[in-house]
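Subject: Interface between my chains keeps coming out wrong

I've been trying for a while to get a sensible model of this assembly. When I model each chain on its own everything looks fine, but I need the whole thing in one frame so I can look at the contacts. Pasting all components below, labels as-is. Any help appreciated, I'm running out of ideas.
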Amino acid sequence: MLYKTITKENFRRMIEGLMEDNDVFGPKWRDRDKNGDKVYRFLKLNDFDELQMDYTRTYSSPKNFFIPFKETLSTYDLAETEWDQQIRYTVHPRVIVGMRACDINALRKLDEVMVKSAFPNPYYFARRRNTVIIGLDHEPLEDCFCRSVNADVVFKGFDLFLTDIGAKYFVAIGSDTGYRIVDRFGGEEVSEADQDAFKSMKKRIESKFKTQVDVTIVPELMDLEFESEVWERWGDKCMSCGSCAMVCPTCYCYGVEEDVDLSFTHAAKQRFLYSCNLIDFAMVAGDHNFRPEPHIRLKYRYYHQFRGFVEAFNQSLCVGCNRCGVACLAGISPKAVIDDLNETEQR
Amino acid sequence: MTLKIPRYDINREPFMTQTPDFNRKSQLLQTERTYKARINAAIQLTPEEKLFQIQILDPKERAQFSCLPGQFVMVELPGCGEIAISISGSCSNHEFIEICIRKVGKVTGMIHRLEAGAMVGIRGPFGTHFPMREMNGSNVLLIAGGLGIVPLRSSIYWVNEHRPDYKDVTILYGARTPKLLLFDYQYEEWRKVFNLTMHTIVEEPDENWTGPVGLITQLFDQVPIDPDDTFAIVCGPPVMFKFVCDHLSALGLPMQRMFVSLERRMHCGMGKCCRCNVGSTFTCLDGPVFDYWSVMNLQEAI
Amino acid sequence: MKVAVNQPVQIEVEHIARVEGHGNIKIRVEDGQLIECSWEVVETPRFFEKMFQGLSIEAAPLLAARVCGICSISHALASVRAIERGLGVEIPAMAKSVRLLAKHAETLQSHALHLFFLVAPDLLGVGSVIPLMKTHPELIEIATRIKRYANEASDLFAGRTSHPMVFKIGGTTQRPRKSQLLSLREDLAETAPYLWDALEAFKDINLPDFERETEYVSLGGNGDYPFIGGDLVSSDGVRKSEDEYRAMTNEYMVDHSTSKFAKLSRASFAVGALSRFNNNFEGLHPIAKEVAQELGLQSRIDNPYFHNLAQLVECFHVLYESKELIDELIDSPDYEVATAYEIRACEGVSAIEAPRGILYHYYQINKQGLIERADCVIPTGQNHANIQHDLEALVTQMTAEGREESEISLSAQMLVRAYDPCISCSVH
Amino acid sequence: MKYLGIELPKPKVAVFGFTGCEGCQLQLANNEQNLKDLFELVEVVDFRLISSDKLGGYDIAFVEGSITTDSDVEALKAIRAQAKLLVATGACACLGGVNNLRERFPLPDAVAEVYGEHKIESGQVRRVADVVPADIELPGCPISKLEFEWLVRQLVMGVEPQFPRYPVCVECKQRINTCVMDMGILCLGPITRAGCNAVCPRNRAGCWGCRGPSEEANYESLVEILREHGFSEAHIAERVSFFNAFSGNQVLPVLE
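Reply #2:
Try treating it as a single job with all components included. I did that and got this:
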């Protein structure tokens, strides 16, 4: 991996320069919550000063830039008995600034499913290839547990990754595009002092983790505690509202729907993100429901995240951002559920 | 100073312009491209079930399409929806594909209204198949309950087309009523031309029924089974295949030589939508055909 | 067409079409004498004033919106503003602009609906807009474009086209984003030419020749053309503050109506586009004034059918004023959208110019912030008596002219429609 | 009309309004750019709000409003007898809607409050389904025009419409809204049927439940959460009672 540094003035010039000819997205503040704290969201930047480099977390993950909540897979012109199908994969280049290590790791997990396994997904692939990612390190928040699931550091999957070392950013370069960007906008060679600053910053980050989730035997527990009352306990609280899956950086379950327009001359096939918590997720024609109860659906969500994905790819699907825990009004968070599961096992 | 990032156009990749071949799962391709197929014949089997013979229009695509017994296709009516349907005809027939559709929901209901000459979109084939070649040299038990005869039928064709490869081949087929026994017009052919043994049973006989009455497991009394040299394919509702497989297990048939076809809701057929996902298993990719041992290890399979 | 003999006339229109709500017209003329002529309001009441009781002030504007599906923005605004006036809350400038823009969007969409969908079929001799889609596609295109802009503006400034949820006590829930405003401004610029086409289409129409001098009531402009709050004025010279609205409406019950009627200096008065036009002509946007001139309208008109043309003039006023408001908003650095408030026992009134005329909401609020008593006076309710008197005069005039029954019936229905009555709203 | 070889019938449609604000009927006439296509698809034979023509003989009746008077009941029964398919349209028809707020008081009190001594015919507020069976309930206050157009397509295709079973939260999160509960605003999104595209939370207002409950809504959990967030019983009761969307459950408080 190549490393460089860039001064904060040059970083500003870099973002402004990129904004000239490309769509640049970054964390902006959108609302204030009832405590007066800012709520952030990845949005298009019109001005460098909108970019909040000191943001905490975005309420929803940047997953939607790669897997939109609704996406047209193909369109059709219909005739009386015939049709013409159109499929487009055109994505215009864009830049996302400020993605966290966990969110980039989330993309790498999605890459496993969407690019590297059977039937690569061209829609995702086109988006992934046309998105420049400029990541950004941060000190963990109170509830971040990315470290517990090995998602706190990232070595691949970005073009540039920045660590704030005072007056400069320490920049890891992950791609040819990334290299060209840093080069164009005044990247400098890494000095001894920069290295020291970087190391101490990394140590500082490492020392600040407050939340830990013990996932050591969770894959096994998912089977052993399959009938556990833990699930009912949390399932009773679950409102099957799907919020967790929507804000999650890795949840990718979806549904496909087709519809025609009122003139019955045009049709579209659309994909929309779904959640395995929703009541009809596993419902088949004739209304038979394989997962009729909330706790069963909740359990299968964890089963996929912490067991199924581990079996398939040797890593959990969860990246420890706790967005689901924040979004869940009922207070169901991976930390709470897994702690409960571990404790139940010990009893 | 600016920097315009060049667009990476995946459409220009050579694999994007090739005729879609769903058997090449690892190639990035136009996964949503459907083969346009004309309905050659639409045969009403029962008030609820209709058999469609469909032909892929484009000769190149038609030549590309090859399937194995147990696989399924996604059948689409543009603007209405898409459904997973198992292939019911002979897999060596490269002219047309046979699918049998039960009217249960929106898409199947609309497809039932299609007449010969109309068109549907086809993607596929998808999924695993019955390991027909591994069964070479052995006895084969084909057991179906109700609509389970539909995926099983392609295995029956296969066995016929490769008859010398197999020893005794027995079909056991049960349905609720005699009227619900599908493809009854073919039983004579299967017995006499295909040289298969076939037994049928119903739960609720009508006045014309002379055969046995009861559950499908009753038919086992009439069939000698050699547990050391028999493969079984069991298709039907979960409660039925569980009974049958447990019964065969008790007779000493290893679970890895029994194959079942699972049914789940599917939206993509490509291991992406997760609607058919149980843990790490995707019914559309790892199934629909599983050996019984895998099913036993699958939380929530039955 | 004049017929010499005095034929008996018997007209019964049950549930007159192309108006909001249920109303009947009954006319009987024998031997040239008007025996019966009545405008009956048969809408089933919902008892909104009672529904408000015990609700929190937070819920009141949402319930108020449900009084009427067409002018829900006016009702919500009247409600929220009445509460604010009671509590003594001054809303931020940003919220004021957003509310007026929402108000204008509603006026434009309501007027366009009325002119093209409800009135145009009469002028073109068909029963509804449906056949016009084939015969007059250009007219439909005009209507579609104007309404589309109005709907989009409603969506942006009120949250949706009916039953807004963005007007909260103290201001609005949010400010529109710059990108949204820019795209709406573009949309507005593209829509304007269609409005001019509409002017061409309506320029040469013949409205029935009928005049009856009456009293016109509206908000009083001070050189402007007010829609939200201000003094209440009448063309007979009455001027009162909003708080004295009861003295302006003097509601009373009549037998054949579930709606209340109203009066002021004489037996009846009119509210709506024509009243605003007559009372505040000078305050119209210069472009709207120009349009009025082109239509040959001066500042005082006594032909009730000209409500339609006054609406057309107002479409120009609201569109061009919206343009200016949007320009201001785009450049406004202001982010404050709502003022904090404290609950206390109070009473509050607000007058709003709904598309069909002046609308009042009044609430008495207790110290827990619950509504103790509510009163809503609806524009169409204020117009009912005037419609009744107009009808009598119209039928008398037409009988004297020896007009045929079918002609009288159509003219009577067109007269009612000219007021663009919102009947279910008037009953509420 | 033919759709991929399938003959689609052109149903005759009528629209009727009972006790309500006619906002739903207005939505039907809204979205003008699609009206032409809509009228190609169905034949409107009776729609008083926009048409003087009354041709009768309809297949599908859209019924808006609550049923409050005896004459309403008779008229609705006549519509039911004629229509092959009856669609209760909007919150008033499906749930009783805001009209139900009046049911907190005896009718004579309501009459006296508004009309004094004057005699007025009215009665209990009823949903359409309280009087005659409704084949389909198209929810919302007001209904969504897009959903209405979708419904028409389903009906023309002869398909049983499947409304979303899941709650508003799904659509709200898909629009990447900040949760209004985090902003201190009471919201019924987690128990209300989706399909509105979360228009109220999108505008930073809470959900008021106008579309009725989502399937197997978890009332217990939401009430618990609302209490934890510090919302008073009265506040919760007002919210859940507003559209009468959650009557009949044993958990939610009801406005007295």
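Reply #3:
Confirming on my end. Residues 70-82 of chain D form the longest helix (13 residues).
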